[in-house]
Amino acid sequence: MMTTSQPPAGGPADSPDSSRADRRAAAAAILRAVADLIEAREDIAEPSVSVHFILSAYSTPDIPAAVTAIASALPCQWRARISPGSSGDWLDLSAATGKSGTRGTDVQVSARAEEVCTASGTKTVTTWAPRPAITRLLSGRPVEGAL
To answer: How far apart are CA 72 and CA 84, in angstroms?
Structure first.
């Protein structure tokens, strides 16, 4: 049986900032260890690695600056796509790293489009509502994703 010790309640590890700092330190440590392993052991095939930065106002005070910092820091070309989401559209940046299905590194950066884009026009979108026979089957429950 494996046990772990926990800091006392109300200690520094209970604060949201220390928890975030701990997660960031753990992420950096494992990524460094993977990089060291790849460089040190040519006899081991390179892994398939995915890194996805999902930026929101909750966790990132200046989202455009964060997207710029990430994209500028990584030595690759980027592709952009606007993706619909349940709470609005998202800008998804994907690093063009030459990743194949089972080998290589994939880096993505996602942020709500309204945070990092400028509206460039409008488009007509079809809205859908179930036909009456289907609505009766739902017993008044709303249809997920229906506008």
So the answer is: 25
Helix or strand run (H / E) with residue 118:
none
Q: What pLDDT digit, counting tens, does each position of 85-98 carry?
A: 888 899 999 987 77
State how far the Cα of 62 lies from the Cα of 52, in Å rounded to an integer: 18
Q: For residue 55, how many other CB atoms are within 10 A of its CB?
A: 21
> Looking at residue 50, what DSSP letter applies?
E
**In sequence order, what E strands does 56-129 have?**
77-83, 90-96, 104-112
Supply angle C-alpha 137, 124, 90, rounded to 5: 85
C-beta separation of 89 from 113 below 8 A? yes
Pair 115, 57: CB distance under 8 Å: yes
Q: Distance between CA atoms of 115 and 56, rounded to whole angstroms?
A: 8
Q: Can you tell me the distance from the alpha carbon of 28 to that of 68, in angstroms, rounded to the nearest whole number?
A: 20
